[in-house]
Structures are given as C-alpha cells and as structure tokens.
C-alpha cells in the first residue's frame, strides 16, 4: 500500500481530494497546524501536526511517503498590503522548499500552482507552453514552481497543477450563490474577461488519474471550454431563474479590494492541452452542466 502525505488537506480542494483518496488503496497522512484543523480530517487518515513554512518533526514522517501532495498556500482573496503579499509568497515558496528538502529519493511530488502564472492574457488562448506574466501573482507562481521542480534532483516525478477557478461546494461558488439568489448577481466590469474554470470533481479525478498513470510535468487544471465572465454570470442567473442586470465597475472593485481586484478581473483563457493529451476525460466540459450539478447539490 502506497503512502500519501497531504499538505493543505483541510482546505477546500484538500478536503474534496481526501474524500476521493479514501476510496482508493492508499495509506493517507495529513498535515494539520493545530487540533482545531485536525478535527476536519476524516478517519482513517493519520494526522501529523506541524507548520509547513517551518522545519519540524513533520518532515520525518513526510520522508517516508511515496506520494506527496502539496496544496498549501495563503488565500489570495483578501485586501493586499506589503505584509500580506509577503505572506502569499512565503506560504507557498517556503512550504514547498521545506517539503522538497524532506522528500525521500524517488518520491512523487504533486505541487499546486495556478493559471495566474500566465498573467492577464486578454483574448489569447494559453497552454502549458505559454510564457509567464509579469504581475505579482505571476511572479509568485514562477517562484512556487521553481521550488517544486527542484524535487527532480531527488530522482522523483514532479507534477505542477496550474489550477483555474475551482467550482465546488465550499469554494468561490458557495460565496456568490446567495448574491445571485437574491437577484443581485452581475458581471465584473464589461464581463469580457475570460474565466477558466474546473469542476471540483474533475480536479480531484485528474489528480488521481495522473497518480495512477505515473505522469509528470505541468498541467492546466481547467475545463476545455473557458467562458467569459458575462457568459458565466448569465448561465448562473438562468439556472437560478434570477436576473443578472447589475454590473460592478472595475474602479469600484479596486476601491474596495485594492490591488487584488486586478487578479479577480484578469483575463486568462487557458486550455488543458497536457491533460487531454494524457488521455484524461472531463466529466463536466461545459459551464451549464457543471453549474447545474453543483447547484443541485447545494440547494
């Protein structure tokens, strides 16, 4: 039985992933920062206490793992100042450095990333081969990936998962659903910016697919069919049978959210070229079927 060690397992993506892994033949260890976090971890997972941004005894346990999945990182959707931006960077890079330094030779590392790597690309379709952006989040993603790829020096496989907007219970969709149900949903600015999304079920299935097929490399975790913010808004409103007349001007978002508004409204039209080439089949390829499924689960 292979041993999997998960960092970031109590978050939105991590909790869904662990539910999927528990149905497979793995011995699962999950890192928790404290006892409160540990309460969220289901049995029969084994809990290891520690802070991934700091060296500690947790690294000894990680050193025995065959597969390590790193999902750690400070939430970016908060108002930024210089200290918070430092936290966003260090929570990703320092954690990854500590993880990589503790891997046993030949271990398989799956490290989270984000399509923020590409920066705002407007109408341009981006694949895993596209060049990085030069804004703050793009620079964070570049350093994050560099830290993870050093694991190759230990003769192991490395996968970078560049996540798009993940739709699922407990994520962004759960936060905006009440607004749309009240009939107050609307586009961000003109709504022409591209919105690269993935259903949480496809995300966790894709991770398991890559593990089972012993793949490596960089993968865009997005649906093959990105939509504009306007199309997403209209589809969600139609499913809920609610109007979506409102529009939030970009300058208002910047006033309330500061620099993070640029990340929220950036246009990234990403395509999962490498996942499709590897043979992965998406269950939810279009936004309508994905939203109908998720809203049915949450209502």
TrEMBL record:
**Lineage, top ranks:** Bacteria, Pseudomonadati, Thermodesulfobacteriota, Thermodesulfobacteria, Thermodesulfobacteriales
What sequence ranges are listed for the domain DUF1731? Answer: 248-294
Please give the name of this protein: TIGR01777 family protein
Family recorded in the similarity comment = Belongs to the NAD(P)-dependent epimerase/dehydratase family. SDR39U1 subfamily.
Q: Name one Pfam family in it.
A: Epimerase
Instruction: Provide the NAD-dependent epimerase/dehydratase domain boundaries.
Output: 4-220
**From what superkingdom does this record's organism come?**
Bacteria
């Amino acid at each position: 039985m292979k041993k999997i060690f998960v960092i970031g397992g109590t978050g939105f993506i991590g909790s869904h992933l662990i539910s999927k892994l528990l149905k497979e033949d793995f011995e699962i260890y999950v890192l928790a920062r404290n006892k409160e976090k540990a309460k969220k971890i289901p049995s029969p997972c084994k809990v290891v206490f520690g802070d991934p941004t700091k060296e500690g005894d947790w690294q000894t346990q990680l050193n025995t793992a065959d597969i390590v999945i790193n999902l750690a990182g400070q939430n970016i959707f908060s108002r930024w100042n210089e200290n918070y931006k430092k936290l966003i960077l260090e929570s990703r890079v320092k954690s990854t450095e500590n993880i990589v330094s503790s891997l046993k030779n030949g271990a398989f590392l799956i490290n989270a990333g984000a399509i923020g790597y590409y920066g705002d690309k407007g109408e341009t379709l981006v694949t895993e081969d596209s060049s990085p952006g030069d804004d703050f989040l793009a620079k964070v993603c570049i350093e994050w990936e560099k830290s993870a790829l050093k694991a190759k020096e230990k003769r192991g496989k490395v996968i970078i998962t560049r996540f798009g907007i993940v739709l699922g219970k407990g994520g962004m969709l759960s936060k905006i659903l009440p607004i749309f149900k009240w009939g107050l949903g609307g586009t961000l600015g003109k709504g022409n910016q591209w919105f690269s999304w993935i259903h949480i079920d496809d995300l966790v299935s894709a991770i398991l697919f890559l593990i089972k097929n012993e793949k490596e490399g960089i993968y865009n975790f997005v649906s093959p069919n990105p939509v504009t913010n306007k199309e997403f808004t209209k589809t969600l409103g139609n499913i809920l049978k609610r109007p979506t007349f409102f529009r939030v001007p970009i300058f208002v978002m910047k006033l309330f959210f500061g620099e993070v508004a640029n990340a929220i409204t950036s246009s990234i039209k990403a395509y999962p070229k490498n996942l499709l080439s590897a043979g992965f089949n998406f269950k939810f390829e279009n936004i309508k079927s994905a939203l109908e499924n998720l809203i049915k689960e949450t209502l």
